[in-house]
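Q: What would this chain look like folded?
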Amino acid sequence: MAADPAQAQAQAPQSTLGSAASAVASAVSNTVNPILPAAVTGALSSNASPNNQISPPQAALEGVGEGPQIKSTSEYIETLCGPLLNYRRMGTDSASGALTWYGSVLIVTTPGQQPPELKLRCLGPLRAEANNNKHSGSDQTKTFVSSKLYEDPRKGFWKFDISLPFQDFEARWEYHVPRLQPAKATPSAGNHATQSFVVPAISQSMRIMFHSCNGFSVGTDIDAWCGPVLWNDVLRMHTQQPFHVMIGGGDQIYNDSVRVDGPLRAWTDISNPRKRREFPFDENMRAQCDDYYFDNYVRWYGQEPFATANGQIPQINIWDDHDIIDGFGSYTDRFMRCHVFRGIGGVAHK
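A: My prediction, written as structure tokens:
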């Protein structure tokens, strides 16, 4: 599954937004996206100022959603999830003509934050034998301004579109979001303000990792399971031979419990098929589902060591059923059109 950077391009993700269900946005059309991939996309800005600062269009700073009318007074940028690193595509830079790597970084914060910035710099060759190679346009730190994708009274989604030139050597890059810290101090909440990732040499094939079914179906004895331990092995291999991209083939998270201990429990308990099809999906249920999906995504993507992998290995993700609910998309057309399934599909697409 190797791809030559000089020839291959990954399809850029769609620009949709997401709550916890945000991560599921472009799956219906098999469009690639990151973790909370739906929220990680948008127009890429290539307008660089003389001081090497990349600024998004002014309209992108406004975002959508009913955000709070007050601003945070904290000296820190309080994060609920992230950073999440996304690989988007490669192409030729219009200004320099250099073959360029394009990606994005997503963070989810408490509401009312001022637009954060991201610093990006090249740390040099991954291998010692490449030390004599010259960096191309990578000696200086580049600053990228964020775009606010969405905000409501609980959270805000911020995206940084980043770009960097391919080098003649396999290069390690570092990105840093100043003043970033977890909103809640928990045993698993690490400080991911500074992260690094590896980009292949311009003549090198990519090392690709693939994963899917990253969770457990309803009925699994969760008490007998101690965290996403397979990701420890991923990070061990990544330390020895860094992955350039990881592809999530679907089911990056399992949300099946929405019908067991979540807001769809009452609907699930209805035994009459006709009554289940006619069960209303009102605004109260919509709000409960929105909170459920968001909380579940933040919990899962903030759990180590999965959280570290998401910040250090550029990702491309597609949608599958468990990202919404078990079997979504595979039932009869008549059942898929019922109020509840259309409702949770809309919440997930948010």
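Helices lie at 230-240, 265-268, 273-278, 283-301, 306-312, 333-336, 339-349.
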